[in-house]
Structure formats: C-alpha cells, structure tokens
Write a structure and sequence with these properties.
Length: 445
C-alpha cells in the first residue's frame, strides 16, 4: 500500500477535470494565435502549414525512398507501394559530436549513409522519389522547402537554424556526386503518421506523436489558416503541423507546472522552451519520476531515507522503467525490484515498491491526460462526427496504460456525440514519407 504522506506529496502531479478543461481552453486560444496572420509572430504554437493537402486514396504505387531523421538515429528506407506494401530499411547512428557539430557535417553524414544504402541495394541509375521526414520545428514554404525554426531533442548543429534543410541535403548529395535522388517532399513525423494511417483508414484527420518528444498535426480548413500563401484550388484544406511542444512557453501553463518541471526545464539544453513537451514526452518522464523519488528519500519516506549513487545521477531513471514498473500486476513488484536493484537499491520493501509505482503512475497519468487534452481540442476543432487519430511514439507504444488513459480522458473532453478512435501508426515516418512523396508525384504528372 502506498503511504498517505507519499500520496500527499504526489498530489500536485494529479490534474483535476477543471485543470484539464482550462488546459483545453488555453490551447484552443493558442492555436488560434498560431493560425492568425497578425498573432503568429508572437505565438508560441507556430501552426505551420505543411503544404500537404491531399490524403492518400489507397491506390498509390511505385518505389520510393524515405529518409527519417528525428533523433539520435536515422533511417533510410526503400518502400514499394501497391497491392502489397514492402519495406526494406537500415538504421544509422548520428554520433554525439555530429549532433552538436557544424551543420554541413550532419548533412554530409546523412548523404554518405544514403549513398551506401543505394549502393548496397544496387539501385544505381534509377531516379527515385524521396520523402524526407525531418522531425524538428520547421517553417514550411512549400512541399520541398522548409526552414529549421530551432533544434530540439539534443541537436545543436551550427549554421542550420533559419536555413532550408532540403537545400542543405541536396548540397551534401551534390558534393558526393555519386547518387541520383529527387526530393519530392519534406515533412515531419506527425504528418507521416497521419498519412500512414489515412492510407488504410480514410477517417484519419489527426497525427500525434508521444515519444522522445511530442507533437500533433491535423487537417484544417483553408479559411481558418490566415498564414496560407498557396493556391486556393480544391481541396480547401491543409495539414497543419502545430508544433505544440512549445505550448506553455509564454507562461500560460504555469498554473499546473510543479517544482520538478521547473528543475527539469532549468537543467535542459533549451530552458524556457518546449514546456508542454517536458511534461509529456519520453525524454523527460523518467527524470520527473526520479526527482520525486529523490525528494521522498530525502524526507525519509522511501528506502529508509538511504539513496544510491546511481539514483542521484541525473537521467538514471529511464522512462522505460515507468512502463516496466506499471506492467507489473497490482501487488506484484517483480519488475520494480529488478529496476531498483539496477539502481543500486537492494533492500526495497513492498511498501517502497508500492510507493515507487505510485510515483510512476502519477507521472504517466499526467502525461497521458495532457496529451488527451490536446487531442480533444483538435477533435473539437475538426468537428466531424467520427475521426481517427493516428498515434506513434515509444511512450504511447510501450506504456501499458497510455492508450486507455488517453481514450478515457478524451471522452470526457470532447463535444457530446462525437466518436473517435486512436490507431497505432505502422511506421509513419517511413511509409508516411513515401506516401507524401507518392501523392506529390501523382499530382505532378
């Protein structure tokens, strides 16, 4: 059983229905600011139009390359679309020095891996259309033009912010001169996730990522997008990449933030930025839990007041530990004990384990409810009777209760009578990129 004092300390991590309704109201306002021409420059949620206006019709065919960069690894994929969909891919690492080195170094590294992938598969002379998934905040100026607004997720390559990343990749490919590629589209992983599910499920209107970071995109009517500078032909819609990780950067979420959130923000490489993301995503959940646990130890409420060297290290309590601890059946602490032993805590009692689990549940439930509030706002904006939400990301995929927690909370926050479903996206940033390239090449014929 969790102890009363532990429950009291964790209470500030628990969001009431009133809190969540207020989060929804504020997010709705912030999205309007992002979409407004006059308000966008100051808006924290940038609501970038993606220039992707058509969803797949399920008849896309052909061979496509996809390049997926969104974290410490990136993938190159060869995708065959048609009656059957086949995929061949390889993962390449982005070494830490390249993540924080000069921009040209990063793009040269990507071009080198792309070239070796093409050579290994003997694709030689075929001019393949490529969809480039680049999962960092970008201001798109067309389907193949996107300026990096700012680095996130531990990247800090100099000389890239404000520049068109497609041009940088083209230049790196040209410097090599040994491969032929036609970049048809640049997108981020949320758009890919939406496209990938829409290929199978034509009700899909929202793409959500809850992984290392969090972001969402959704299909918006053109008349609501004051920033739109493209043509006004049919279809009168465009996918909006919200970049909602920055929600709260202007102080509008301070009413639910805690001392743990403030600590994490201060110690991050981007203080004052991506505050909503820092309450939800896998990059931070484990560290929030660790900070709560450290406090409970300091107050003598866990492990007889004795910590361990490993537990005292920032980042030592991984987010995957939360998923593993919550995968134990209630009252069974096998995973929890194994994890605590890894952290150098060998004599935890059942009560200690119950308390650690309670901390994990408070952190993950808060994350799921905040993500749910965001999705509910998008569902209410779209206003259709039945909408599918495409979801991807390690937190959603591996946490045993995240899906159910989100579903339960979205039901409370959407308008009565609306139906929705959360659908796990099968490889959005890979197949989704190929689908954007396929729709683009279908339209340019």
């Amino acid at each position: 059983m969790t102890t009363k004092k532990v429950r009291e300390i964790c209470e500030e991590l628990i969001l009431s229905q009133e809190n969540l309704k207020e989060v929804c109201d504020v997010l709705h306002e912030e999205l309007n600011k992002g979409l407004g021409k006059d308000t966008n420059p100051e808006a924290t949620i940038k609501c970038f139009p993606t220039y992707v206006r058509e969803l797949p019709n399920g008849k896309e065919k052909g061979r496509f390359l996809a390049l997926d960069l969104g974290g410490t690894n990136f993938r190159v994929l060869l995708i065959q679309l048609g009656e059957k969909c086949s995929m061949d891919s390889r993962i390449y690492a982005v070494p830490q020095p390249i993540m924080v080195g000069p921009g040209d170094g990063l793009f040269d590294h990507i071009a080198e891996c792309l070239a070796s992938f093409i050579k290994e598969r003997e694709l030689g002379d075929e001019l393949l259309p490529l969809g480039f998934t680049f999962s960092f905040p970008c201001k798109q100026e067309g389907l193949t033009k996107a300026r990096l607004a700012r680095w996130t997720k531990g990247f800090k390559c100099a000389g890239v912010e404000g520049r068109d990343v497609v041009e940088l990749l083209k230049a790196a490919i040209a410097r090599r001169g040994d491969v032929k590629i036609k970049i048809c589209a640049i997108l981020n992983d949320t758009t890919g996730t939406l496209m990938s599910c829409a290929w199978k499920n034509h009700n899909c209107r929202i793409g959500l990522i809850v992984g290392t970071g969090t972001n969402a995109c959704y299909m918006e009517k053109l008349e609501k997008v004051e920033l739109w500078d493209g043509d006004l032909d049919e279809p009168h819609q465009v996918i909006i990449n919200t970049e909602w990780g920055a929600f709260g950067d202007n102080g509008c979420l301070d009413f639910i933030r805690t001392e743990y959130d403030n600590n994490i923000d201060c110690e991050s490489i981007n203080p004052g930025r991506q505050l909503y993301e820092k309450m939800i995503s896998g990059m931070y959940m484990g560290e929030i839990a660790r900070q709560v646990i450290i406090r409970l130890v300091a107050e003598g409420l866990l492990f007889d007041g004795k910590s361990s060297e490993i537990l005292e290290e920032k980042g030592s309590f991984f987010t995957k530990y939360i998923s593993e601890i919550e995968s134990d059946k209630p009252g069974d602490y096998n995973n929890c004990r194994v994890i605590l032993e890894e952290l150098g805590l060998n004599s935890a009692t059942d009560t200690d384990c119950a308390n650690v689990r309670h901390v994990c549940e408070c952190v993950s439930r808060r994350a799921a409810y905040l993500a749910a509030a965001g999705v509910a706002v998008l569902l209410n904006r779209i206003g259709e009777e039945s909408v599918t939400v495409a979801v991807d990301g390690s937190v959603y995929r591996f946490h045993p209760h995240f899906h159910n927690l989100m579903t339960e909370q979205i039901s409370h926050l959407i308008k009565p009578g609306m139906k929705f479903g959360l659908m796990l996206s099968e490889d959005g940033s890979g197949r989704g990129a190929a689908l954007v390239a396929a729709v683009a090449s279908r339209n340019s014929r």
